[in-house]
Each structure stands twice: as C-alpha cells, then as structure tokens.
Write a structure and sequence with these properties.
6 strands; alpha/beta; Rossmann fold; about 200 residues; globular; about 45% helix; 2 domains; single chain; 6-stranded parallel β-sheet
Length: about 200
C-alpha cells in the first residue's frame, strides 16, 4: 500500500515557464531561441542547469487541491528535489503547513539521480520504500532512480522533460501511475491501495 507521497519540485509542483522567459530576456536572446536551446540541452542529455541556475515560485494550480485531498485521505506528504538551500527556504515558507517533509539536494548532500538522494528520502519518511510514492516529471532523474530504490512512482505530464519523454517505452512501462494532473493522484492511489488489500 502507498502510505506516503513525495513530490519533486520543478515542473511537478512549480511551473517554470515564466522563469525560462525571464532568463531569455536577461540573456538578451529571443524567447524561442532560448526554448530551442533548452530543448537541445535536454535532448542531448546534458545538465539543464547549463541553461539557467535560478528558482522562481509559480505553483501549478492543481498543487494545493491535490495536497489537501491527499492529506485528507491520511497520507504522509513530502517534497524532495534538486534544490538549493535558498529554494528550500522558499519551499518551507510555501508548504510548511501542507507537508511533513521538505528536503533538498543541498540539505542532503546528494542530488538526483544519485541513489543516495533516494536513500535520504527513504531515511526521512517513516514508511518502507515500497510504501513511498515518488512523483516527478522526469523518467531519467525521478522515476528510474526511485524505482531502483524500490519506490512506486508517478509521472506527471508537464514541462519539457515529460513532454519529450511521455511517449517513450520507459515512460509508459516504468511508472506505477501516469497522470495529466496531480488531482488524479488521490483516486489512482485509492484504487491501487484497494487492490493491495
């Protein structure tokens, strides 16, 4: 059974669209050129931070309703992603009343997809790995290492990575759930848990 849900941050909870445009403007390049370069970096398997380095907070509209519903169903909730100490502070100010855990790669000294990051998640969550659902937008950075650590996963279809990876065999076969919106998670988890009983 799934007893805990841990969310990635960028393009899972936080819509980074405005951030990309802001970076293009700051760099003095057309937004479509920046977007094309961003896509090329992703397609080449390079670190997206080669394109930009900052964090902004534009929550997707389904985030708070999904968290409230999941919390109402008694699930333990966490947020854990590749974020800086500064971003961790922003996340704590945004979500301190909504989740049980906020962990960042800077806090833990390990970033995704390093297995140590998921070991840190497992250490922080009071349930077994197979009871911790990790939700992310990337097969390579989120789902693959979470599955390798024994966690069920959910792939949310948004942002550049999920858009590029959505129709791949791995994106169809690896996740426990594939969702268009985080508000689909409570029902998917309830059905999954009913089958496990």
């Amino acid at each position: 059974m799934i007893r805990a849900v841990v969310f990635d941050v960028g393009e899972c909870l936080v819509d980074e669209t405005r951030e990309y445009g802001t970076w293009a403007d700051w760099l003095g390049v057309p937004r479509h050129t920046f977007a094309a370069m961003f896509g090329a970096v992703i397609a080449q398997g390079r670190d997206y931070r080669e394109v930009f380095q900052e964090f902004r907070s534009d929550l997707y509209p389904d985030v708070r309703p999904a968290l409230a519903t999941l919390r109402g169903e008694g699930l333990w909730l966490g947020i854990a992603g590749n974020q800086t100490v500064r971003a961790g502070g922003i996340l704590r100010s945004l979500f301190s009343d909504d989740v049980d855990l906020i962990g960042t790669s800077d806090d833990w000294g390990a970033g995704k997809p390093d297995p140590l990051f998921f070991a840190r998640v497992a250490d922080a969550v009071p349930f077994e790995n197979d009871q911790i659902l990790y939700v992310g937008d990337r097969v390579d950075n989120d789902l693959r290492p979470a599955v390798a650590s024994g966690m069920p996963t959910a792939l949310v279809h948004r942002g550049p990575w999920a858009t590029i990876q959505w129709n791949t065999a791995e994106a169809r076969e690896l996740p426990t759930f594939r969702v268009e919106s985080l508000t689909e998670l409570p029902e998917a988890i309830a059905k999954f848990n009913a089958q496990e009983r």
